[in-house]
Amino acid sequence: MALIAVGKHQALGFPDAHDLAAIEKRHMAKVLLIEDDAETAEEIKAELADRGFDVEWSANGAEGLDKARSLQPDAMIVDRLLPGMDGLSVIETLRREQVRTPVLVLSALGAVDDRVRGLRMGGDDYLTKPFAIVELVARMEALLRRPAESRETTLKVGALEIDLIERTAKRGVRPIDLLPREFRLLEYMMRRADQLLTRAMLLEEVWNYKFVPATNLVDVHMGRLRHKVDGPGDPPMIHNVRGAGFILKVVP
């Protein structure tokens, strides 16, 4: 049985210049899918193909490993539980061979320890089954946007630090308890420290909105995040630029 949740969204209207550029880039992206469930694989292949990806499919780990070596794909989607050679062994083998292709791990195992192990074995992202197909596409696009050499496990801006594997944050020695959306928002800001980030940018990149609704969603989340990051006595790091957006920066 396929483990893909219903969640496909068909956009209406003609694509704008930004969409056309993204489509053109995807047409150049070769994706290797290693998934033993044929129904799941067919749904993923069809959706990615519709969106311009060139998809190659393998149904087992050993064959997938061979294809990863020969095809040199731009990105991979690897199911964790595969017959014969499991998905994490495929990824670990490639990493030992210095293959840095970004990998999205699929798994029905969704516990924190399972996700952490998948990332520590060399996965770049982890998606739990059942999933919405639009989320899988968004994660693949995000992986392809990353620089090829980017494999950092922590981000630091001043005294602020986040662990991308453990999904934890701290400022100095003080731990910061973040909800998943807050962590994603903070990660996005830290990767663009000292840059002005508009509400439209944040809605598109953090919430995956392709339009700008009339909402105070960003301001509400930013207020909560600022309260957690900028604790009592801490110099503020999250700054509101009135009428423009937000900046994460260290003020001397």
- Most strands sheet: 5 strands, parallel
CATH superfamily of the largest domain: Response regulator
- The count of DSSP E runs of length 2 or more, i.e. the number of strands, is 13
Shape, please? Answer: globular
* Poorly predicted ranges: 6-27
Overview of the structural elements:
- By secondary structure, this protein is α/β, with parallel strands linked by helices.
- The protein has 9 helices and 13 strands.
- The chain has helices at 17-27, 38-50, 61-71, 87-96, 112-120, 133-145, 180-191, 199-206, 217-229; strands spanning 4-5, 30-34, 54-58, 75-79, 103-107, 125-128, 131-132, 154-157, 160-163, 168-171, 174-176, 238-241, 245-248.
- It has a 5-stranded parallel β-sheet with strand order 3-2-4-5-6, with helices on both faces.
- A hairpin with a 3-residue loop joins strand 12 and strand 13.
- Helix 7 crosses helix 9.
